[in-house]
Amino acid sequence: MVLPLLALCLALAGWGAPRLLSGSSWALRAPRIALATWAALVLSFAAAVVMVVHAVSEPGHLRERPGRWLSWSAVASPAEGAAGHDQALSLGAIVLTAVAAVVGTGWVRTARTRARHRAVLAVAGRQDTEHDWCVVEDDRPAVWCVPGRGGRVVLTRGALERLAPAHREAVVAHERAHLAGRHHLWVGAAKALGDALGRLPLAREMARQVPVLVEMAADDAALRHCTPRVLAQALCIVAGGGTPRGTLAAGSHAAVQRVRRLLQPARPLPPALCAAWWLVLTVLPAVPVLLACGP
């Protein structure tokens, strides 16, 4: 009974849930929760892979009933329940190390791209100390940020000329939300996993959805400094400006969808539902482990 349940966890985390999450409307209402859901699904999938291999290689698990560890006998004899789980720990360490290597390689690659861009800005950009942003001579209206050490907000001369002060404040607040939230780590991890595991719907859909969700999260943070209409107008102005690789920009991802979201806002999710969902996300990666091993 254990193996079918673990296979179900594997299928739901790797195939079923990503398809449902990609087409869900609630993710647009709560982008931060949606980002955490993608992370929980990755951890759940990795845990399910480890536990399936562990259950198959330890035939004793296949004869045990699910939830056996909840019984009084398992509580009374914890040493017996823990026997044979050293292999599961070793497998888990190997899988987590592999995931960390893939994500870390992606982060290093994008960090090098950003370092080259910062070197270009040091020569071609002009630092505006009054407003704490960098200005680049370009007629196209564009605004972006360069995350990482020494993160900065960059505006083109075209953006300064076409954006009204209120619009400028809105897009700059958006970019500073990216820097404060370290959104580049989310995007870099999703892209690295998508490149490495492109055939897996979980990795493929995550790489497609995470850049949009971080932009929506930054939009929500920027609304503390401006109205939705002002931010929507600013996004329309900078949407076609183009931005360098390795950066995060206000108008770079799903601009039309985000403008519609700002001008036709949906009701936020109830606080009780959000709290319950955060609790589910905390427990979700542990479900395959509890099914196969128990505490």
TrEMBL record:
Keyword Ribosomal protein: no
Cofactor: Zn(2+)
InterPro entries (alphabetical): Beta-lactam_resp_regulator, Peptidase_M48
Record-annotated Peptidase M48 domain positions: 115-185
Residue spans crossing the bilayer: 33-57, 91-108, 269-291
Family: Belongs to the peptidase M48 family.
The protein's name: Peptidase M48 domain-containing protein
Nucleotide-binding listed as a keyword: no
Keywords for the protein's UniProt record, in alphabetical order: Hydrolase, Membrane, Metal-binding, Metalloprotease, Protease, Transmembrane, Transmembrane helix, Zinc
Note describing how the cofactor binds: Binds 1 zinc ion per subunit.
